[in-house]
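Extended Data, panel c. Modelled sequence:
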Amino acid sequence: MFRITSFLLFLSAPLFVLAGILPSKGNECQMYIAYSAVKNNYVIAFRGTNGISELIIDGLSSLNTYDAFQAGTYNGGGRVNHYFYEGVRSLWPTIKANLGQTNPDTTFFITGHSLGGAMASVTAARLSLEGLATNNLIRLYTFGQPRTWDYETATAFPNWVPYTWRTVHHADPVPHGPPMDTSGAKTGPYHHTREIWFNEKFDSLSYCSIQSGEDPTCSNQIGDFNFTVDVVKSEHLRYFGVDVNDYGANGCADSPSPSSSTAPITSTITSTASIIHSILTPFILLLVILCK
């Protein structure tokens, strides 16, 4: 059984408002940390944006402020998105204070959706580089993660966190912001590997490149992404048949949209369990944070 060591840690988030990410309930970013003494595992889960507005869409496309990334012995000149970096930096003392059970054999499952996916990515990198976790025992699963790093840090990321699945739902536009630098200079926002690209109904998937986080044969092939409220609701806020944003409000039960062709999560598990079990497990752990 998991012992909840920190539940619903709140980060006052005016910086997310400045980024255009405006939750509908109190401008909060929330996370939890859970520990299993039996399995010697930690789970760190970050929730995403709470609610939807034009500010989310407009703001996400303008998140182009990047800071030099420093963690542990790394000072290689690579950069990380300022807003996600600051979010993790604000929570870092609390995260470290709740990792009292760690040892070199501890496995970490780190997960998050949207904004939470970006913060999960930064957290995984810091745990590895600062020697708080063994890098090959970190399991990072993100869903609808926006571009978090620049080219240098994104390409170094697999050395820090080798086991990473970055799940993208069909034409979800959020993973395609901030816009990538297409000039060839490789200085702008860039994804780390490995993208797992699901189709609209979540009944098939593509395992994308392990060399590049910007595989042109996966979700990047869509090209013209539509940052509208309807598309964000159907593609970004709905993963594995679950309306992620409304899951807790609906009593932590599947509530498929009548207009959606995506199967609810129970059907998805039944029909594709042998393929995506390892992704669905952290996704379900992520949903726990919505059941407050």
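Confidence is low (pLDDT under 50) at residues 1-27, 258-276. This feature is highlighted in the accompanying rendering.
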